[in-house]
Amino acid sequence: MAELHCHTTASDGTVSPENLVEIAEHIGLDVLAVTDHDTMKGALRARDYALRVGARVEVVVGMEVTTRSQDHIVGLFLERPPEIFRSVADTVNAIHAQGGLAIVAHPFLGLPSSISAGRLRKALERCWFDGIEAENPYMRKGARERFQRFMQDDHDRMGAVVGSSDAHYGDLARAVSLFEGRTAADLRCAIVTQAVTPAIGRVRYAPPSLLARLQNQYRSLVRLPIARGVLLWRQWRGD
Prior knowledge:
two-stranded antiparallel sheet; 9 strands; seven-stranded mixed beta sheet; alpha/beta; TIM Barrel
């Protein structure tokens, strides 16, 4: 059982990378992909902590990449951060160039960070995807209907269908990806061969506290834009 999309205090999550590993260990996840917005710092901390304490859960280094159109692509098995604010196709190709896997995050929600069917089809003219989130806690009726209509015509070009929580409060495994085996290598093989199954998780959490929600909003609306501005400046300078 894998969690493929979650955030830490390195971006707009409210739980530290180390605490996220402890939660994943407690609930019995086999693989935890840490995918902070536009940074790999939290994922690297989580991976190093899991190795240091001998955790059973295996951490995959990932990143949720913001594209020029504000659509979000989750990169998994990354070695270095892809550049941000590029086209969707250029973002996906950059992930593939370093041996990573590219997953469409929370599609068709009707939000600025959620890709539309039209933009996704346009990107498919220049790239291919390894998977698309078919199950997450934010998929309501309208989004599910749009997803199903899209997949009727384009499922053969979208790779694996996966389940992910997009967890910001340590609320892991609200949606999961099931696969044969237990290791990150097994997970990668399952995604590549489209042998992964999305599922609703059985773990239940209390609603986030007001303080946690305020922390999330502060990180999302204040800290992240500043961090992206600094990152874009460094990209422009070629640092």
